[in-house]
Write a structure and sequence with these properties.
alpha+beta; Aminoglycoside 3'-phosphotransferase, Chain: A, domain 2; 4-stranded antiparallel beta sheet; globular; 238 residues
Amino acid sequence: MAHHERATLRVGEVYLKVDADQSRMAVEVEAMRMAPVPTPEMLWCKPPVLALAALPGTPLGRLGQPSSASSAAWTAAGAAVRMLHDAPLPPWPAGRLEESAARLDAECEWLLSNDVLPADLVTGNRRIAEGALRAWKQVFMHGDLQLSHVFVEGDRITGVIDWSEAGRGDAMYDLAILTLGHPEHLGDVVKGYGPEVDHDAIRAWWSLRSLTAIRWLVEHGFDPSIPGGEIDVLRSQL
């Protein structure tokens, strides 16, 4: 994987993460040390490179593709997220969430001024997204809990990768990112996580995440219009 900000290379059973942002790498290292869930073994860290051992198993799924993981694996993922959220808070915030309102304004303006999406699709999802901008109880949040970052083997979680966005934040954000594009598995995740779930906030984060991700994806060589991707998520919200 590679884009303008960082790159990850595989050499045998070792992954080399190259990131010129040393503060982001420091967050990843410390978050993995603190996390009460399985993470890749850290082999060494010599900025700008972090070496991690490969995890056994396969990703829970990928955005835009059906997940082949069992319902029990999704439930196990929910239980792992709950364990993380119940852990002691890290000493730093997840800055991306603190900037959510300003980012939503800026990204919606960009989508409309550049005719990237129909106005009704943007404005309708923006109304939904505003539901995420509320007070929340801070938890130890992964911050980028895409389903491709959760590895499973059968019904067991073998590890969670990519902790560079971790910090104190909203529990519902993690649950939303984990189930983005896969709402059919939200029930399985909640079964493992527990009943303290705000479904409206999760739906709001689906819209907010998709609206604010599209420009970044385009500028970094990814396609948000793939079937089941961010633009399809926005359409499904309405």
